[in-house]
Write a structure and sequence with these properties.
The protein is α+β, with helices and mostly antiparallel strands. The protein has a single domain, classed as Pseudouridine synthase (2-Layer Sandwich), CATH 3.30.2350. About 15% of the residues lie in helices and about 30% in strands. The protein has five helices and 15 strands. Strand 14 and strand 15 form a beta hairpin. The termini are far apart. The C terminus is likely disordered.
């Protein structure tokens, strides 16, 4: 800080009539986001997004996003704390073709989710319209004034002492769809504080929701070939799953 052209200590008391000059600091350099490229050609690429990386710029978020780091147009989204496969087009024509596949429900997106408690059935479909929650606009729920069709399918892969590992696949792609739908059937995703999974996540040492986009299947819009990409769960989820297998059985009726 300079006062009337001279440098002063930070605790200098400015008097009436003095002119204060503050030099702008150099903004800190931002590290480029790190992610793995699973598939790439001249038309598109599939990346394996780590948890914590935001897909698109948003108000209040100042760090670099995935969209900043890739030369392409993101076809669909993943929540910040959801890891896994994401499809990116290298031209507007390819993005439009892939989004048309999504609308026709010809793109298969499979996820791994660890949820609290045990679903009664081995497989199920949650067909419940979603929209902004009437009382909390940051959440999506079935308690909404503007519902949009939303369909989620699941299969129980493993029943653990107090949790269940699910394979989940989407028929529609609403914001927070898997998290909101699983919460709606009283089996929230572990580690998801927004939708009721805080306690389950705390027990397992999770710092984010146990949700991973593990498989992506789509027809290449240019070559016509069926592309199948897969991703293994990252280390933090594998550790939590190991803890979940060793949990003591709860005395509660739903395993929580």
């Amino acid at each position: 800080m300079r006062v009337d052209g001279r440098t002063h200590a930070k605790n200098h008391r400015v008097a009436r009539g003095e002119t204060v000059t503050v030099a702008e600091g150099k903004p800190p350099e931002q590290r480029a986001p790190e992610f793995e490229v699973v598939l790439e050609d001249e038309h598109l690429l599939v990346v394996d997004k780590p948890a914590g990386l935001v897909t698109h710029p948003a108000p209040g978020h100042h760090d670099l996003t995935l969209a900043d780091a890739v030369e392409g147009l993101i076809v669909h989204r993943l929540d910040r704390d959801t890891s896994g496969l994401l499809l990116i087009a290298k031209s507007e024509a390819v993005r439009e073709a892939l989004q048309s596949e999504l609308k026709r429900r010809e793109v298969r997106r499979e996820y791994l989710a660890l949820v609290g408690g045990h679903p009664e059935a081995e497989t199920g479909t949650i067909d419940a319209p979603l929209g902004r929650d009437r009382h909390n606009r940051t959440l999506m729920s079935t308690r909404t004034d503007k519902p949009r069709d939303a369909v989620t399918h699941f299969e129980v892969l493993e029943r653990l002492p107090r949790t269940a590992l699910l394979r989940v696949w989407l028929e529609t792609g609403r914001t927070h769809q898997i998290r909101a739908h699983l919460a709606a059937i009283d089996h929230p995703v572990c580690g998801d504080p927004a939708y009721g999974g805080r306690e389950c996540g705390r027990r397992l040492g999770l710092r984010r929701q146990f949700l991973h986009a593990k498989k992506l299947m789509f027809r290449h819009p240019v070559t016509g070939e069926m592309e199948v990409c897969e991703s293994k769960p990252p280390v933090d989820l594998r550790r939590a799953l190991d803890v979940a297998t060793r949990e003591p059985v709860s005395g509660g009726p739903d395993g929580d």
